[in-house]
Design goal:
- The strands form two sheets. A five-stranded parallel β-sheet has the order 2-5-1-6-7, sandwiched between helices. It has a two-stranded antiparallel ribbon with strand order 3-4.
- It has one domain: P-loop containing nucleotide triphosphate hydrolases (Rossmann fold, 3-Layer(aba) Sandwich).
- Helix 1 crosses helix 8 and helix 5 packs antiparallel against helix 6.
- The protein has 190 residues and is an alpha/beta fold.
- It is globular.
- The structure holds adenosine-5'-triphosphate (ATP) and magnesium ion.
- Magnesium ion binds next to helix 1.
């Protein structure tokens, strides 16, 4: 049987690594953590105040090699749309999470106000989804809302879609929700 390549991406704090671990255990697959590959192989161009500035060309080459392994693979990271090619990828799970819940996660992580705002804005605008669609095409991309779900539920939904027991869905719109609640200022005013 052919080995699967499942990509799990999405903005910071949406639940990628937590879900990936559960899926890897359930399906006996191996996790390739894009950030770890970058750090472990000196594919970091420089450290900036906002995080790591990655050498995307080098990282793409490293990942292409890793993806040649004859194993079921789960490739995890928010950089996925910028460093992976669509060929050979079976499905791209873009995890989404309400900006109101993300705010709590970022507080726990002690992100600065600026970093938290930037990441919430990026989630509200759906940057990860847009970039994933651009790189992988709409046939391979599915969104999963982790808001109010347990990691086990999310893992189950992703597995079901990977195994084609559930359809690939997209269409999450935080912008409309935030606007309806009258919170545009809260998230977008500087
Ligand atoms: N349904 C869910 N699926 C996955 N994680 C969840 C879910 N609900 C809550 N969480 C929690 O969300 C938090 C963030 O998860 P995690 O660290 O996996 O995010 P991430 O997307 O890997 O973040 P980063 O990009 O910064 O590595 C964790 O505390 C996790 O337990
Ligand atoms: Mg993580």
């Amino acid at each position: 049987m052919k080995h699967f390549r499942l990509v799990i991406t999405g903005n910071p704090g949406v639940g990628k690594h937590t879900s990936a671990k559960i899926i890897a255990e359930k399906l006996d697959a191996e996790i390739i953590d894009i950030n770890k590959v970058a750090i472990g192989n000196n594919a970091i161009a420089k450290k900036t105040s906002k995080g790591l500035d990655v050498d995307t060309k080098k990282l793409s080459r490293l990942l292409a090699k890793a993806l040649a392994a004859k194993k079921d693979l789960i490739i995890v990271g928010h950089l996925a749309p910028y460093v992976l090619k669509p060929a050979g990828v079976d499905m791209v799970a873009v995890l989404r999470r309400s900006p109101y819940e993300l705010e709590k996660t970022f507080e726990k992580r002690k992100y600065t106000a600026e970093k938290s705002r930037e990441n919430m804005a990026s989630e509200i605008l759906g940057v990860s989804l847009y970039d994933s669609l651009k790189t992988f095409g709409k046939r391979k991309v599915a969104e999963f809302d982790t808001t109010g779900k347990t990691p086990e539920q999310t893992a189950g939904e992703i597995i079901s879609t990977l195994q084609k027991k559930s359809p690939k869905k997209t269409g999450i719109d935080w912008l409309a929700m935030v606007s309806e609640k009258g919170d545009m200022q809260k998230f977008f005013e500087y």
